[in-house]
Design a protein that fits this description.
The chain is mainly β. It is about 0% helix and about 50% strand. The strands form 2 sheets. Strands 2, 4, 5, 6, 9, 10 and 11 form a 7-stranded mixed β-sheet that branches. A 4-stranded antiparallel β-sheet has the order 1-3-8-7, with no helix packed on it.
Length: about 120
């Protein structure tokens, strides 16, 4: 059974950091583009950052550029999202997803989804 599991969320003060992990089971991530998405209460799910299967290409939402870094370790079947300089507006449930192609970093391009991990940025 294909499964993605996110971890690493939590409560952090503004300016703090978190590293999210997305671990796969039941399949290997090597051939998939992976995206991180987030959804805040009352808002649509939005793309945060996506990475190609090789890791050679990435993209970021303008709101997180320079603060977030996506990376992958195919040997560990895991993708990471390092989040620095967190802001209250980064508060959301963060999801990782796997897709066949690296094109647009939008939810409809991705087929397999994790259950999400809550990130709360508050003092």
């Amino acid at each position: 059974q294909l499964q993605l599991v996110e971890s690493g969320g939590g409560l952090v003060q503004p300016g703090g950091s978190l590293r999210l992990s997305c671990a796969a089971s039941g399949f290997t991530l090597d051939y998939y583009a992976i995206g991180w998405f987030r959804q805040a209460p009352g808002k649509e799910r939005e793309g945060v950052s996506c990475i190609s299967s090789s890791g050679g290409s990435t993209n970021y939402a303008d709101s997180v550029k320079g603060r977030f870094t996506i990376s992958r370790d195919n040997a560990k079947n895991t993708v990471y999202l390092q989040m620095n300089s967190l802001k209250p507006e980064d508060t959301a449930v963060y999801y990782c997803a796997a897709g066949r192609e690296f094109r647009l970093c939008v939810p409809y391009e991705y087929d397999y989804w994790g259950q999400g991990t809550q990130v709360t940025v508050s003092s």
